[in-house]
Amino acid sequence: MVHYLVKIIFLLFIIMPKNIRSCSVPGFGYEVHILNNLPANSPQLEFHCASGDDDLGYHYPAIGTDFNWEFCGAFYTLFFCHFWLGDKDLSFDVFNNINICVADGKDFVPSDTKKCLWKVQDDGFYLGYFDEHANENIYKKYRDW
To answer: What residue range is the signal peptide (predicted)?
Structure first.
């Protein structure tokens, strides 16, 4: 029995696509969004996001814009970002848990969240999710700069 389970897990790893822009395995697709919600007079936001396999590069989003990507997630998937704003800088995981976006995010998003929403503000970073009942994004402060 264990032998068959090992074969099934091995086959799942083989068929999971490496392309982070799509996921052809139903139920394993995730999204990460980073919204620049800084005031108009702010310094330019810069960030660099990557995983062990994928480097998403450096980004300089305009205020009010949303940088996002999709990928096939598994229990070992991790994406981190390094953010810079003037003389401030901070790096942290933006995805490392297939149920709640980040392992310490249980107080921020409900279980089985497939879309991780990050909002960058001058006072820090907010983690959120889309609430289907309220039909809006719900955010809670995750950490300061």
So the answer is: 1-22
